[in-house]
Amino acid sequence: MKPFLLISRSAEYETRLRSLLGSRLAVVPGEFLMLGPQTVVERVHHQPRIALLGPVLNFEETRGLVGELTQRYPEIGLIVVREQRTDLEDWVDDLPLHAVLSPHAADSTTTELLDRLSGWLVSNGRAVPEDFEEPPASEVGEVIAALVHGSPDAEPLNEADQVEAGSESQPFEWEFPPLESGVPSEAIGVVAPKGGQGKTTIAVNLATGLAEVAPNSVVLVDADLQFGDITAALNLTPERTIVDAVADSAQDELVLKTALTHHSDGFFVVASAPSPELGDAVASDALGHLIERLRETFRYVVVDTTPGLGDHTLAVVEHVTDAVFVSNMSVASLRAMRTEFQLLTTLGLMPSNRHFVLNQVDKMSGLTVKDSEALVGAPVDVAVPKSSAVLLASNRGIPLIHDDVRDPAARAVRSVVMRIAPEAYPKRTKIQRRWRSNGTE
């Protein structure tokens, strides 16, 4: 019997808690959350009485775990391990928690809180005193997870996790849909000459649409290293970013995958740097290396770039199979796009698969699509009409093609997806609305 369960991304905190609770503690690494909270809870092979969630878990991950744990173990006690921050009150209001514990709390404070919650569970008939006693020596070797942050002293799997009867214990391996034999991985860079062209909107919806035909085999990289806002557009709160993804420690495949944040539409995100200073520290060659490494695992790698043709954007263009160029209908942007095309052609860096998207097409702009083509010197592949639905979807944190599938802009963006994957024909006929954490549509 292991009455205490820890789900955390902090190896340091796990070590502290193990020293306090010993064999009474079961652990599932928080990295499993990229496979969903249900997968994490399925790794729990004992009935826990108290679960500690965190540190280094975001609100959505914590909420998902709370839902799965309370459904499976209605009598469980729940503690969030988190620093005192301004939004802590929102967590307490929205989640059925029993306590909040600072990860920096003294061992005596942690032990006292666990004892108090254990006593409360017993007094309310949710547990019995024997649940919290030290297990017999025969049970000490049983564990919940085989791999804990890659530590060499990870405990062996129990019998339920043996690959075959009588086989040796093996560590859990990350499971992504395997790339089919003969099917190449594709990388798509989304490029714009200036900011404000709608580049991020195209990148987000491109990843969303591709994930429909390759679920969990699409990764969206926010390589706008100074002011990337993909996580804001998707209402995500990542714990790790591209800075972690290109770090030396990320040469380990498992560590690299922990830098990914999963989106409910079936794709992964590498978030932009948390500050311009940290973004500037990401080398352009490291970005190119990251793209190549991701292509070893994912069917599609979509990269949102920094506006213009700086070193990082050029590094992206060098490592992609397709480039989606985005411009609005302003004369300045169209002329800048023409200059980009000429420069990339001169440098020999123009990807063989080029897609020109004319965004925010408006009859009142004074230009036509033909005028835009003349200014750029290249045909427009997809014209996306100006629409208020784009801003509404972004403010909701929902990709446009899943927010209002009948909107003309959504249909046009869908055609961008189909240029990469023709089989990504929309199968949904109704507008999809998603409930958010605040209970509103």
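(the above was protein one; protein two follows)
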Amino acid sequence: MDELKSFSYKRIGLITVLSMSAVLSGCNLIGGGAQKSEEKSALKVMYYDERSFYSQLGMVYSALHPEVDITVVTNQQSGPYDPQKDMKAEFDKFIDEKQPDVLMLTPEQLTEYAEDGKLLELDTMTEEKTYNKETLIPGLLDYMKELGGGKIYGLSSSFYSQAIFYNKDLFNKYGIPLPEDRMSWDKLFELAQRFPTDGAKDKRVYGLSLGYNGELYQLGSMIGASQNLSMVNAASKQVTINSPAWKNVFQTAMNGLKSGALYTEDPNGMNTSSQTYEDYLLRDPFIAGKVAMKLEGAYFIGQIKESQTRVKDKAIKSWDIVTVPVDPQSPDSSPNMSFNQIFAVNAKSVNTEAAKEFIRYVTSDEYARVTSKLQDGSFPVRTNYIKDDDNHNMKAFYSLKPAKSSIYKDYDKLPQNFFMQFMNIAQEELKSAFAGKKSLDDALATAQTKGQQIMVQEQAKQKDKPAEAAVTEKTASGTN
């Protein structure tokens, strides 16, 4: 498994080669057409760690902007995870102490910081003619405006997305119509169930693989997210899983799981210690030609193409992709696109122009061109560079506009230890329903009742914390 283990090192090496090629080419790679300045400036950028920053973003930028002295600051936590630690408070403290010029935020953090006036707006920059906003993926700017309450306070250089991969040969063999973009979940399951369900597990054909989403709670949550449903109303602190909409979602998921058409991964079944790399590739039933459709991310394209070279006689030959399933009431959007690396300018920055220029460059056409061949599972936000050489339907990854998932909406406004406890209860109740030990109605009603009880308990604990902290402080200071 030397090849498998060395993947990350190969990736870093590829980034380095691409980066230096871009620099040596002598092309005008300055994002947005901004002019270089001879004046030296310092820029403090927040990122995961210094090594990954320079391999993924900083090497090319530094070569093209020698007048900017970059310092990378990271908020990576050391030591074991502490569930009692207030992560939001820790993050705010980190920002206050380090004061990075460029912040790296999640969508939720961007919304919070924008509301608190901690960020500078970027609308003017995106409206500049040289920024070429028309080549950005559809809906990106609208999504960022939604996060920012009507203004753009952050931009991402890349995004992650999923699509439905399908095996053309299997569909033709069984005379089944090919999948289409913007199918509903019901349509997807109906297509999957048209494939035969007989035969041994390791020999038969399956209509659909959804990875590790093989439990009722997981699959139902995925379907519910596409329909903009939420299990909890964070504002009113009410659990809302026992509703007709959620019942319909979990019934759809249950029917799909019990149909025999779905291939589900065993999370405990992957042992690669004695496998060759070829075995590893063929372990995937879609690559081996045993699954007609599979929900996957962009990285899977690289695995398919590698298998067609390494195990050509055994690997899938003809394939394509369509969009993930959608809600028929909202067929042009999906929560399956994510931007977990959003860059924003700190309102307290003393280097605002350098900070904006950095964001301009890492979201530019030129940066997308340099990084478009990395195949690291993400895509650049510029559509000109989302393509492959075999004319596959790559638009499936970005033609649906990004939408915020309601499943975990305002998660940070809930009591800190609530959601994990509620999720465990919901999972167990739905397992009982799937096994026929109780009705789906009873399972959802019990999950809601027990979940609400936990909500009340955790709210009470949260209210008691300030008093406990005050007593602790008095004791430590020796006051009575």
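Reviewer note on protein two: The first strand starts at residue 41 and ends at 46.
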